[in-house]
């Protein structure tokens, strides 16, 4: 009978040092980082906050894993890079994941993939809205002092899928199936919330509904805080503009170029290009102009700022629309609007961290 714990003999030395191979390492894991995540989750109480929003219809006498345990396990899986619920088949016996759940490595295994799938499919619309409020409450609690003003950067990103998930759609731009969640950060880079949705560009009515819920949640914690909405051009719709003005919300949004808008800057584009060509060694030349105008679908004219830039590649013109006053056009564009790029960087740095995988029915 062979003893698996005996060392493997006969290995040649390396650099004058003996090489010893043994098989008595016991239970091993390559995901010890989840133990650090366990401490963070325990401090924030994310799993308990989300579990409180879900009605547990299971028979109490038959429950082995609580809702908070299931959510915590799924959170750890996604944070460690295991987005597919099928990975639970192996991870449920992983010693690091067990300890992150407060179970000893030799204790009973964690929840199985079918159990996690039943949890995800048991979540209804009421629970989803409640979890959205819980995440906004968590964001507000993370700020030590109630701010006088916050900036909400809103953007969407493509989340590719590789199965028959519910709500998935084909996106021609990304040439694949997936979702297109709306993600919200504040101006300091703190994650606020995310909404999982089909892979199509959101329309004005949908954006307005999302903003209405989000602002209502934030104002329930900070009723006197001034809010600035910052987003790119496809969030600029008459529904959004009118709603912001009616509810005292500041906005600074990208604006798609149109023929009437370009008519305002035709002379400026020509003079900027001529000035650059006269002194090409000075780098790109950037100039600004503003006017009050609006699309036919808008209820009123708005302050529109044009940024005209001339360089070796030609002339580039961008437009933004805002209800902010008291600042110069250059300041609003460069120091306020352009900072929304930080939100895009947060998504690009770690796309999986910004995707609301948790508890979406069928997203496995």
Could you write a compact summary of the structure shown?
By secondary structure, the chain is of the alpha+beta class. Helix content is 36%, strand content 18%.
Can you walk me through this structure?
This protein is of the alpha+beta class. It has 3 domains: 89 residues, no CATH class; 141 residues, Nucleotidyltransferase, domain 5; 65 residues, no CATH class. Helices cover 36% and strands 18% of the residues. The chain is built from 12 helices and 11 strands. The strands form 2 sheets. An 8-stranded mixed beta sheet has the order 6-5-1-7-8-11-10-9, sandwiched between helices. Helix 7 crosses helix 8 and helix 8 runs parallel beside helix 9. It is globular. The two termini are 44 Å apart.
């Amino acid at each position: 009978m062979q003893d698996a714990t005996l060392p493997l003999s006969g290995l040649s030395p390396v650099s004058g040092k003996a090489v010893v191979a043994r098989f008595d390492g016991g239970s091993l894991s390559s995901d010890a980082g989840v133990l650090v995540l366990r401490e963070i989750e325990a401090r924030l109480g994310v799993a308990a906050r989300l579990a409180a929003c879900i009605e547990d219809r299971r028979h109490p006498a038959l429950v082995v894993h609580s809702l908070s345990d299931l959510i915590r396990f799924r959170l750890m899986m996604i944070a460690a890079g295991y987005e597919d619920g099928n990975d639970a088949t192996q991870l449920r016996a992983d010693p690091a994941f067990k300890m992150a759940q407060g179970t000893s490595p030799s204790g009973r295994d964690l929840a199985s993939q079918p159990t996690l799938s039943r949890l995800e499919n048991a979540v209804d619309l009421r629970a989803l809205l409640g979890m959205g409020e819980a995440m906004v409450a968590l964001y507000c609690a993370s700020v030590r002092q109630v701010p006088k003003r916050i900036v909400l950067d809103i953007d969407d990103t493509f989340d590719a899928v590789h199965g028959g998930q519910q709500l998935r759609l084909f996106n021609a731009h990304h040439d694949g199936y997936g979702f297109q969640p709306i993600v919200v950060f504040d101006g300091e880079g703190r994650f606020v919330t995310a909404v999982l949705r089909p892979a199509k560009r959101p329309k004005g009515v949908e954006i307005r509904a999302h903003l209405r819920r989000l602002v209502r949640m934030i104002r329930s914690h900070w009723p006197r805080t001034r809010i600035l909405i910052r987003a790119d051009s496809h969030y600029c719709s008459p529904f959004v503009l009118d709603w912001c003005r009616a509810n005292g919300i500041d906005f600074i949004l990208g604006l798609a170029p149109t023929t009437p808008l370009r008519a305002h800057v035709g002379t400026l584009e020509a003079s900027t290009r001529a000035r650059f060509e006269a002194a090409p060694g000075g780098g790109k030349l950037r100039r600004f102009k503003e006017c009050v105008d609006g699309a036919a679908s808008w209820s009123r004219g708005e302050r529109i700022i044009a940024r005209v830039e001339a360089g070796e590649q030609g002339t580039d013109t961008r437009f933004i629309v805002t209800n902010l006053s008291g600042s110069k056009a250059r300041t609003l564009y460069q120091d306020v609007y352009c900072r929304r790029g930080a939100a895009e960087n947060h998504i690009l740095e770690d796309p999986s961290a910004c995707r609301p995988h948790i508890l979406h029915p069928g997203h496995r």
